[in-house]
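Database export, one record per block. Field names are fixed; values are copied verbatim from the stored entry.
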Amino acid sequence: MAQSIHISTLRRMLKAGDPVDIKLWTKSGEIQCWRNCIPLRYNFYQGTQQFKLLDSHQIR
């Protein structure tokens, strides 16, 4: 079962750079589950975060 966390906890987890499993909503409303991904960079002006999926080596 998925657990909700506070945004400040999420920011600390992403800043650490360790692999994480996340669920997210796309612009189209689709829910995606990403497993074993690491954060790459955050764009402050757009409010977006890039991730690398370690299993498929995709960057999203």
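Remark 1: Residues 5 and 24 are 13 Å apart (CA to CA).
Remark 2: The beta strands are 20-25, 31-43, 48-53, 58-59.
End of record.
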